[in-house]
# Entry
Amino acid sequence: MILSIRSVPQGTGRVCCCRLAGIDVMNATLEIQENIATVVAPAFTIAGEALEHVLAREALLDRAMGEGRRRKSSEKLRRGRLPAEGLAFAALGEDGALAGTVRLWDVHAGLDAFGFPVSALLLGPLAVEPSAAGCGIGSALMRHAIDEARRLGHGAILLVGDPEYYGRFGFTAEKTGELAMPGPYEKRRFLALELKPGHLDGAHGILRASGRKVPRAEAPARRSA
# Structure
């Protein structure tokens, strides 16, 4: 993405840090030609998460969210589970380094009016390398995750997060009033996006993990005596 802005007049002696359309100028390449400053956002690609991204992902989450992230209610629904099939993504810089991450998880969003579990996805955590904040990586990961979840036929996505941020992607608290997380959380931050209209109608109760469990490591073969 390339944006052009007017440069600071010569002789002002000021260094300006600003944000333009989600781009942090301090994290971008700044090229000045005459009186026009061109901001070139760092390039990145979004790919399915691979095994080689795991260690970098965990380190990124610690830097971006702190170690307290493991005590959140959402973690109870992720612990010991694998992400939903085909719904773990990594944003990679031009050098292949991890710049952002998001994963979605299979859950039961309570029960429907007939007492059957309501299948849904739980999104999170979404995190971006702090040094790359403001470059649109988080938004790109969100849109990609939503599009893929819809393509794969899922009915709804839930998350706990900032309503002002996630509202831009269509998330609201309108369908979570009768649902609850399995632990402490702020009600106003419990949001949902229906990928299929009416999917959460009548859903009530506590979210439960429903995804594939992490396989146990096979015990090493005993050496023969």
Notes: Confidence is low (pLDDT under 50) at residues 1-40, 218-225.
